[in-house]
Specification:
heterodimer; A: mainly beta; six-stranded mixed sheet; 12 strands; B: about 120 residues; mainly beta; 11 strands
């Protein structure tokens, strides 16, 4: 069965600092990987996805993620965080049926 | 093009009552997924439906919970005889049909169920 681990429950960074959110997955076949962001009281918005090809993928809002098969990781990065990036971030792995399994999320706090 | 619409946004039920949550997928989307989010937790898969068919209900509790996606109208998640532990945010997601690679899910804003 597929699974996702996000080791960091809560991360605090200063505005303008760089950010990396960790994600490790377990899946038997080629994974379909996603990062979503959730603002309070809202649904999830897709930031980026990886299916195949270039292991560094670019997403919206200046985010990028790197797929590392040897480490079963798909970490999310942003070079310079803005106060509006404060939210909860979810990593997910999808299967061939379109079903996604989510991690428990990482809450990002941005200090002024 | 409207996104995934869920209603109601907030639902309060007393223990023992029934809760009905509705989800209208995006136009052109024929795949619907229901997820539950408990406080301080991630999203847990409940059920995956296509029109008039339940494809995967491996995440649904065995009792009191049911889901449908009729030929016409929204998908419905129904919880009978609600208990306090059912209090959560319930999210619906949809996707269009695909050939080889499943597309990302489009999420609604959720229904927050409170059982008193």
């Amino acid at each position: 069965a597929q699974s996702v681990t996000q080791p960091d429950i809560h991360i605090t960074v200063s505005e303008g600092a760089s950010l990396e959110l960790r994600c490790n997955y377990s899946y038997g076949a080629t994974p379909y990987l996603f990062w979503y962001v959730q603002s309070p009281g809202q649904g999830l918005q897709l930031l980026l996805k990886y299916f195949s090809g270039d292991t560094l993928v670019q997403g919206i809002k200046g985010f990028e993620a790197e797929f590392k098969r040897s480490q079963s990781s798909f970490n999310l990065r942003k070079p310079s965080v803005h106060w509006s990036d404060a939210a909860e971030y979810f990593c997910a792995v999808g299967d061939d049926a379109g079903k996604s399994t989510f991690g428990d999320g990482t809450t990002l706090t941005v200090k002024p | 093009n409207a996104g995934v619409m869920q209603n109601p946004r907030h639902l309060v039920r007393r223990r023992g009552q029934e809760a009905r949550l509705r989800c209208s997928p995006m136009k052109g989307h024929s795949h619907v997924y229901w997820y539950r989010q408990l406080p301080e937790e991630g999203l847990k898969f409940m059920v995956y439906l296509q029109k008039e068919n339940i494809i995967d209900e491996s995440g649904m509790p065995k009792e009191r919970f049911s889901a449908e996606f009729p030929k016409e109208g929204p998908s419905i998640l129904r919880i009978q005889q609600v208990v306090r532990g059912d209090s959560a945010a319930y999210f619906c997601a949809s996707s269009p049909p695909w050939l080889q690679i499943p597309p990302p899910l489009h999420f609604g804003n959720g229904t927050r169920l409170t059982v008193t």
